[in-house]
Amino acid sequence: MNFNKVKRNSGAAMLISVVFFLFISLAIISGLVSSTVREFRNASVDLNSKKSYFLAESGSEDALYRILNSMAIEASETITLDSNSTTTTITSIGSSAKQITSLGDVGNLQRKTNVVLSAGVGVSFSYGVQVGQGGLEMSNSSKVIGNTYSNGNIIGTNSARIQGTAIVSGPTGIIDGMDVDGDAWSYTIRGTSTVGGNATHSVLQNTVVTGNVAADSISNCTIGGTVKYDTRSSCTVTGAVTTPNPDVFVSADILPLPISEAQIDVWESEAVSGGTLGSQTFSSGTRNMGPKKINGNLIMSNDAELVVTGILWVTGEIKLSNTAIIRLSSSFGGNSGVVMAGIDESSTAGYIEISNSVQALGSGSIGSYIMLLSQREMGSTAIKTSNSSTAAILYAGEGEIEIDNSAALKEVTANKLKITNSATVTYESGLANNNFFSGPSGSWTVQSWGETQ
Prior knowledge:
This protein has about 450 residues and is an alpha/beta fold. It folds into three domains: about 25-120 and about 445-450; about 150-240, no CATH class; about 260-435. The protein has a 34-stranded parallel sheet that branches. The protein has a five-stranded antiparallel sheet with strand order 1-2-3-4-45. The longest helix has about 60 residues, at about 10-70. It is elongated and about 140 Å long. This is Type 4 fimbrial biogenesis protein PilX N-terminal domain-containing protein. Keywords: Membrane, Transmembrane, Transmembrane helix.
């Protein structure tokens, strides 16, 4: 019987092939899984990083909302969202800027955003007194300590004095009867005026000048410095004389007043955004108010105190008397605030009266002032202050201001101005670059916003 030989090693090759195939498959699967895990890990990191960024953005937005709406907020705040947190830090940059830094942290992945805010409206008061076409009248030992610029004539009587430079713009401007400690610039200087510095003009009459003079015509003058002139009559000159005068008098430019109608419109809108009240009258106690529109009058007397927390717009009149106090909230910091009266193009509404030791104060910080602004137009007095009252800034761009009886002020701007009876305006240099904190929507402006980490 013939039997074929059985091959007992025929499965070994197949087993080896299977093992090789298994290892190769595992290697391929491992490579695919590793790539997938890596991509999943990267996706998770990317997601957490984005969560961290948006968390930081949320912190910045929350802080910005609170600042713009005058809500309470600490210098450092922590917000938790979905078990993750962001820390927001608020720092002041000088008196007119803030920085909001927000650090988000999700799974130890941190992102940081930075927002820089600047204070609202900047208004430059470059002169202790600035006057429009109505001109400036001073009498009875009244005084401006600082420079004065007028688009109308400057007239002084009874020892009125400007302790600074006096400038009258235009080709026919006149300085008459005024004692000027600094330089004087006007087409005509006359009427027993005295000038402690240099005098630049066309016509000089009845004037004592300590410094130098350049003029077309001089008469009845005493001049301590050098003189350039074309014609001369009865003048005593100490210094050198040049004739004819080689210089041609050039009048100073007519300057616009520093606050525009458009800006006043913005302030009105901000006051309205806080709601409207009827007339307010009180004679005692302390009240907080603002931003608000008062559709009527604001009357304060005796020991009443008003803390202004935002812009106030009074459509009628403002009367402050008998030691009443109106001041800015401490939240204004180094910024200034506005209290307005009147309606645009009205010659009746908007009268402001400050008398009998009233105080109008800033926030208590350096560089903070309160401005009382009247929109009343020419025809009658817009603002009157008297009897030892004090205020920082008075403004009547289209009306007349009267300052009487030892009133003390920091800056006055008006279309026409009268200062009498020892009243004094003392200019402070900080007013040259003054920031007005003007209400919830306009108090701060975003200057930059971006990620820093």
